[in-house]
Amino acid sequence: MKTVSVKNRCRFTVAGKPANRIESISAPYHVAATPNRIPLIKPRLLVNPGDRIKLGLPLIEDKGNTDLKLPSPGGGEVVDIKYGPRRVIETIVIKIEEEEPYETFSIVDAARLSRMRGDDVIHALLEKGLWPFIRGIPFKGIADPKESPSAIWVPLDITAPYHPASGVYLTGESAKEQFLFGIKILKKLCDRVFVYEHADYPVTDERLKTVITHRAGGRFPAGDPGVMHYQTKQSAKENRAWYVNGQDVLLLAEGFLSGRYPVSRVMAVSGGHTDNNRHVRTRLGAPLESLVSKIERPDDYRWIAGGVFTGYNASPDDYMGLYETSLMLVPEVKENELLGFARPGLRKPTCSRTFLSALTRPKLPVDADRHGELRACINCGYCAAICPVDIMPQYTYKCIYAEEIEEALAHGLLDCVECGLCSYVCPSKIELTETFKDMKQKYYLGKI
Ligand code: SF4
Ligand code: SF4
Predict the structure, then answer these.
(1) Under a CB-based contact definition with an 8 Å cutoff, are residues 270 and 182 in contact?
(2) Are 243 and 316 members of one domain?
(3) Count of domains observed in the chain
């Protein structure tokens, strides 16, 4: 097994790791597809309000590649389609019927899979609506089925705080069997399927160990598939790769074995009280409000879906996106601390040595305090020191600002894995990650 270590001197000591058990919550009455949360697709609607749709039948297709379709995460009536600015399709809401109608697909078991060629497997994944779980590196959109990837990476654990660990979603013999079957599916698509554990979450199950090829070492974002790929690729020819998160491998397998679109999802849900964080089993596209029924909430808070570094501000009437496994209710901070910069800061997050907490490293709850306002870059170099793919974010950002895109690409813009760390450590509060993400998307879509 090969170990890929990334040095990251920023130690995150967040409090409130969700308890390892999974709790059941009431099944939602509505679910929704959220195409605007899927990077790089240009959605074309295939349904209208009032239509009745079966679970697993397509709601939208990608105008750029009509083979890519996004299936309905529920069976019932399309009750609402919400649009954002410039008629962007934000959510397609389905009211689930009591006897939920679902589309049936052909079952592919181990014997049938062994007789299939790669093209047959691609066709089956597209037909069953499972293809969107396979994503591309470096752009993080849905993988292009016509492309030959240099590798497929499968992280068992998302190492950012507050995501379900493999020890939580891979419990029980059937889950493990299913995972191994999912890996067999991926091996039909590419010879180089790299399944990796993180050193902090070593796998003990003997059968799972047989498919593990790599171990990620170091702090977040050490386990990110883009980082793993960057650290191991041999040449620019290998720039393109694919990845599938461990939980989504289970869905690929379930879709093949059951002949039905799979919707089960384990989410980490955290509130403002750190001893109250938990995992819940729900379904894809569930309303965010339905996930927090058992969570004790802070007085005033904001909703963050998708993780503390990579997530986005959501609202209580939003729905879970296809790839999200984390929801947080982050306490708002009402007042700025008077002369806060002059205090020792025993309980302040710091990646530099600005505050005394750098010595004691207390576990701190996450809140919405930015600890400062936007100002000009002071060339401190913290962003470059923390970047796991050796970009110099401060220079790349300045190139973009000056519209020197070729220069930004030369600095490694496309290698950015959008981990969010440079924005987090920046004392000038510059939105580096969002800028890079936006430029990568524009580059992909040919807008620059
Ligand atoms: S540039 Fe920033 S967001 Fe991109 S990989 Fe480096 S630290 Fe992460
Ligand atoms: S961390 Fe922020 S202020 Fe420091 S060099 Fe990077 S962009 Fe500039």
Answers:
(1) no
(2) no
(3) 4
Continuous segment of H or E residues that includes residue 185: helix 173-187
Q: Which residues line ligand 2 (CB under 6 A)?
A: 377-383, 393-394, 425-428, 430
Q: What's 297-342 look like in SS3?
A: CCCCEEEEECCCCCCEEECCCCECCCCCCEEEEEECCCCCCCCHHH
Q: Are strands 301-305 and 326-331 parallel, antiparallel or unpaired?
A: antiparallel
- Looking at the chain, the whole-number percentage of residues with pLDDT higher than 90 is 71
Residue of 387, 423, 426 with the most ligand 1 atoms within 8 Å of its CB, for mutation: 387
Residue whose Cα lies nearest atom 8 of ligand 1: it is 419
Which residues surround ligand 1 with Cβ inside 6 Å? 386-389, 391, 393, 416-422, 432-433, 436
Tens digit of pLDDT for each residue in 138-151?
A: 999 999 999 999 99
CA distance 305 to 302: 10
Contact 40, 139 (CB under 8 A): yes
Q: In Å, what is the CA distance from 260 to each residue of 72, 129, 283, 407, 425?
A: 12, 10, 14, 48, 44
**What tokens appear for 107 in the block?**
């079952």
User: The pTM is what?
Assistant: 0.92
| 297 and 186 share one domain | no
CA–centroid distance, 441 to ligand 1, in Å, is: 15
Q: Which atom of ligand 2 is nearest to the CA of 378?
A: 3
Shared domain for 249 and 274, answered yes or no, is no
Tell me, in angstroms, the distance from the centre of ligand 2 to residue 432's CA: 9
DSSP state of 388: T
